[in-house]
Amino acid sequence: MRKTRRGAKIRGFAPVASRDARVLILGSMPGKQSLDAREYYAHKQNAFWRIVADLLGIDRHFPYRKRIHALKAARIAVWDVLRSCRRSGSMDSGIDRNSEIANDFHAFFRNHRKISHVFFNGARAAASYERNVLPEPGIRALRYIRLPSTSPANASIAYERKREAWHLILRPAKRYRP
């Protein structure tokens, strides 16, 4: 990673998605611990995997591959809005807005036509998508819903309230019948 006064240039991950995904959960950019582990939501205090495990009825301590398999089986995809950016530190607040480069959502939605709902993991992801993706022509109409961030920085919202709000991700995924 190259460092500048505005922080290190970082790159995100490929999406986790099956062809029949109905739901897309978007973060902004993986934090340092996730980048180091090469896993989405690797920070031990991030509530993402705890919430997903509760909602899907799996053990949150399963190996990463098994948790990813459970997401795919539930027709839930995970990705980030940004392909790359410069960021000081690990927090979304350290992202240099002028360096944001969005992922290729045209190609993603073309290859995942059953996705009907996009859920944002917090306000920063929603704002970044609105700023970097929605101005592009050709993004098909979808249902967009902002959920409370699972980040440990969002400690003002109790876990139970977060889990209750995140329950929405299950509705579109369950409507589909193969």
CATH topology: Uracil-DNA Glycosylase, subunit E
Mean pLDDT: 90
Q: Pairing-aware structural class of the strands and helices?
A: alpha/beta
CATH superfamily: Uracil-DNA glycosylase-like domain
Q: Low-confidence runs (pLDDT<50, min 5 residues)?
A: none
Strand content: 15-25%
Instruction: Give the biggest beta sheet.
Output: 4 strands, antiparallel
Topology as a string of helices (H) and strands (E): EEEHHHEEEHEHEHH
Secondary-structure arrangement, i.e. CATH architecture: 3-Layer(aba) Sandwich
Count of DSSP H/I helices: 7
**Broad CATH class:** Alpha Beta
Number of domains: 1
Radius of gyration, CA atoms, in whole angstroms:
16 Å
Shape: globular
Approximately how much helix is present in the residues?
A: 25-40%
Gap between N and C termini: 43 Å
Largest sheet, spatial ordering of strands: 1-2-5-6
Number of strands: 8
Fold and architecture overview:
The mean pLDDT is 90. The N and C termini lie far apart (43 Å). This protein has one domain: Uracil-DNA glycosylase-like domain (Uracil-DNA Glycosylase, subunit E), CATH 3.40.470. It contains 7 helices and 8 strands, in the order E-E-E-H-H-H-E-E-E-H-E-H-E-H-H. Strands 1-2-5-6 form a 4-stranded antiparallel beta sheet, covered by helices on one side. Strands 4-3-7-8 form a 4-stranded parallel beta sheet. It has 178 residues and is an alpha/beta fold.
